[in-house]
Design a protein that fits this description.
Strand order of the largest sheet of chain B: 2-1-3-4
Shape of chain A: globular
Number of domains of chain B: 2
Strand content of chain B: 5-15%
Oligomer: heterodimer
Strand content of chain A: 25-35%
Distance between the termini of chain A: 44 Å
Largest sheet of chain A: 6 strands, mixed
Distance between the termini of chain B: 20 Å
Radius of gyration of chain A: 19 Å
Largest sheet of chain B: 4 strands, mixed
Order of helices and strands of chain A: EEEHEHEHHHEHEHEEHH
Number of strands of chain B: 4
Structural class of chain B: alpha/beta
């Protein structure tokens, strides 16, 4: 008996990278990177500084063009996916206009993404990052952690299908970090795909799946428990070290 | 091309400067201060009357002529011996010593300032004509009255400089501010963020052009009001034509600023481009020295500078009252548009190189 097509279990792939290479002068940042991010999951890109996490995220955001390999984002070329408004990219440093207020910053980024019903969206985004009371504040007067939160809010306004978060919780206090992850989880449940880079093991364990990345290649891919059992270690950190040594 | 996104970028720039008092001061107060200085220095039409010693021991002319020469209003005449005159000249107390040898009139002047030297010669010549002619005007030949096609007798150097200063301030300040603003986009990472949205590079550059044109036109209004109503500069042209010239000049200035920001790593480096971009235009665009008085080998340089065309167009419009439809004005505007387009395309290309 043949199953109808609709019933066949197909896992949609949000980000499909195969053999992606990117070189900056003498440095080869990505050396044939393969990974697949499934739609609706939180995928953690885990690796030390300089391992190629940010370079890969910038490729996905359409900011860098790989020299070799294929990279599709939501079934399209990266830039096409970004142009369609399907991608949200939160840079590592909170890139905002310091001389503008929080509200002016958010309205500007909303306008670039042609966001409808702006007032409501801004209110929702600010409530999510717990900054509703600072809507009128000039960004230069905010603390580093607050700027990170505004930066996240600016990334959420257009409700992207794929969210690229480059070390999103740097400079965020533990309480708010907890809330951030609860919010990430809610977004994923609602169907948003999240690609999160981190070098903090505690955060990595909250991801559905992880890609351990070092020197521009993925050493291992799987859930935190899978990786730990594969390495035969007690925790993720030692698993990472063991897999890195083996790779 | 999405005009909503272009407008958003332009609005962002305008909002950003609203809280930046120093930049606003640079845009609006600095030109007024500089123009006031220029007005104070060059705004007066009275030329300095030179003090001249007539060397009585070496001036063999009838006494009435010498009397009239000393009394002439063209000079402050004094009598002294030749040696006494030379001594006074060395001390800087007088400007010239006049003596007569045979039929040749000798002027001894200090001579270190060529500009002053020229005006002293002219004044003494005029005094001598008065003296020789005396009461009998026929003796001195026809009397010369100068009528001017443009300007007037009360027309000063400030009237000549004001039109080009409008262009110079616009170009200088807008170039500097756009270079620094765009550099900030690069260094703070907002450019990276912008490029990860549907915003296109062309839209970004257009938004910048629109945002800075707003300030440039506001600045032009401030400068024009100040020069026309406070400094009383003569002005005959159509205000709209002046703004059109200004607007096309600013397109080039903003785009050049964006281009330069691609070559700079920080704000200090961006500022280092100011003398490279501005100084050749001060000397070669006709701002101080008319272009047709430049040496031949500098003419081609002058021909590629945008301010050369803006100066010519603004002088034609403000001093001579040319209309927009005048072929000369249209040609200048055309060249400025071409310059702006080339720079804008260069600016778009410079963004491409950094963000692949």
């Amino acid at each position: 008996m043949v199953l109808p097509r609709e019933l066949a279990v197909t896992t949609e792939i949000a980000v499909d990278a195969q053999g992606v290479r990117k070189r900056f002068g003498a440095v080869e940042a990505l050396r044939g990177l393969d990974l697949r991010v499934r739609a609706g999951e939180i995928y953690g890109l885990l690796g030390p500084n300089g391992s190629g996490k940010t370079t890969f995220i910038r490729c996905v955001a359409g900011l860098l063009r790989p020299e070799a390999g294929t990279l599709t984002v939501l079934g399209k070329a990266p830039r096409a996916a970004v142009s369609a408004g399907s991608v949200g990219y939160m840079t590592q440093a909170p890139a905002l206009y310091g001389e503008l207020s929080v509200d002016e910053n958010l309205r500007f980024f909303a306008a670039l993404q042609s966001v409808p019903d702006v007032d409501k969206r801004i209110e929702d985004a600010l409530r999510t990052v717990d900054l509703l009371d600072r809507q009128r504040s000039v960004v230069n007067t905010l603390s580093g952690g607050m700027r990170t939160r505004v930066s996240l809010a600016a990334t959420l306004l257009h409700q992207p299908r794929l969210l690229l978060l480059d070390e999103p919780t740097v400079g965020v206090d533990p309480v708010l970090r907890q809330e951030f992850w609860a919010y990430f989880r809610r977004l994923a449940s609602a169907g948003t795909t999240l690609l999160v880079s981190s070098h903090v093991m505690d955060e990595a364990s909250r991801c559905d799946r992880l890609g351990l990345i070092r020197a521009g290649v993925v050493l291992a891919e799987g859930s935190a428990t899978e990786l730990i059992s594969r390495a035969g270690t007690r925790d993720l950190e030692s698993a990472f070290l063991a897999l890195a040594a083996a790779g | 091309m999405n005009h909503h996104r272009v407008r958003a970028v332009a609005k962002r720039i305008v909002l950003g400067f609203r809280r930046d008092r120093r930049s606003l001061g640079l845009l609006f107060v600095a030109p007024v201060v500089v123009l006031s200085l220029v007005g104070a220095v060059w705004g007066s039409t009275t030329e300095r009357v030179p003090t001249v010693v007539v060397a009585t021991d070496r001036f063999n002319m009838p006494a009435p002529i010498v009397d009239r020469l000393v009394a002439s209003t063209a000079i402050h005449g004094r009598r002294a011996t030749y040696d006494e005159g030379v001594r006074l000249l060395r001390e800087g107390a007088i400007d010239a010593v006049v003596s007569l040898e045979g039929t040749t009139l000798h002027l001894l002047i200090e001579g270190s300032d060529p500009l002053q030297s020229g005006s002293i010669g002219g004044a003494i010549q005029k005094a001598l004509t008065d003296a020789v002619a005396g009461g009998n005007s026929l003796l001195g030949g026809p009397k010369i009255e100068i009528d001017q096609l443009y300007g007037g007798t009360d027309y000063s150097i400030l009237d000549y400089l004001a039109p080009v200063l409008v262009a110079f301030f616009a170009f200088f300040f807008i170039f500097l501010l756009s270079a620094v603003s765009f550099l900030r986009e690069r260094t703070t990472g907002t450019l990276e963020r912008l490029m990860a949205t549907p915003l296109r590079r062309g839209e970004l550059v257009l938004g910048y052009l629109a945002g800075f044109s707003f300030f440039a036109l506001l600045q032009a209004i401030v400068i024009l009001l100040f020069t026309v109503f406070i400094l009383k500069v003569h002005y005959r042209g159509n205000l709209a034509t002046i703004f059109i010239v200004e607007a096309v000049l600013v397109v080039g200035a903003v785009s050049l600023g964006l281009l330069v920001s691609a070559a700079a790593r920080n704000e200090l480096q961006a500022v280092q481009f100011v003398p490279i971009v501005l100084l050749p235009q001060v000397f070669l665009s006709g701002l101080l020295i008319p272009v047709d008085q430049l040496p031949d080998y500098l003419r081609p340089v002058s021909a590629i500078l945008p301010l050369t065309y803006a100066n010519e167009a603004l002088r034609s419009v403000m001093i001579k009252g040319y209309e927009l439809a005048d072929p000369l004005v249209l040609r200048d505007i055309g060249v400025l548009i071409a310059f702006g387009l080339v720079m804008a395309i260069g600016a778009v290309a410079s963004i491409r190189r950094e963000v692949a």
